[in-house]
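Internal tracking record. Fields below are filled automatically when a chain is submitted to the structure queue. Please do not edit lines marked as system-generated. If the sequence contains nonstandard residues, flag them in the REMARKS field before resubmitting.
Queue: standard
Priority: normal
Entity type: single polypeptide chain
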Amino acid sequence: ASSNYSLTQFTGANVSVTARPITVTANAASKIYGNGAPTYTYTVTGDGLANGDTLSGVSLGSSGDAVTANVGQYAITSSNAVFGAGSASNYAITYGTLSNGLTVTARPITVAASGQSMIYGNALPTLTYTVGGDGLVNGDTLSGVLATTASASSNVGSYGITQGTLAASS
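SYSTEM-GENERATED OUTPUT FOLLOWS
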């Protein structure tokens, strides 16, 4: 750019554009035992998406998705990003696994003892109950029996029915 030089030769080169590194990882989620898979979300980290590119979907799932998955923690895996705008070839995608990302919590149930009556001197009727709240699922049952202090020799009066040994699984 000065009169002190005379450009006699120029050798060109290339600009090499490489794939943008991103990581797609599920966000933590939870569900209640007996329910289906929750709605999963994900986060894109690394250098992030560029030029208005978007992901329209990522496959996310867990072994805890089954309605029979027991209470506990499960990994969530991610795979198969689908680009809504942009091209997958512009990205070096790493799919993250979120260990213990899905929490399956205990199903809330209620148990109500059914009121009973008996005639003085007769045998105690079978103590029964109803299950409410979110209810039992997957063929699960309660174990044990309700209890009362009433018996065939109890005087006329009212006697409470208690939980006794009635219990639900974890």
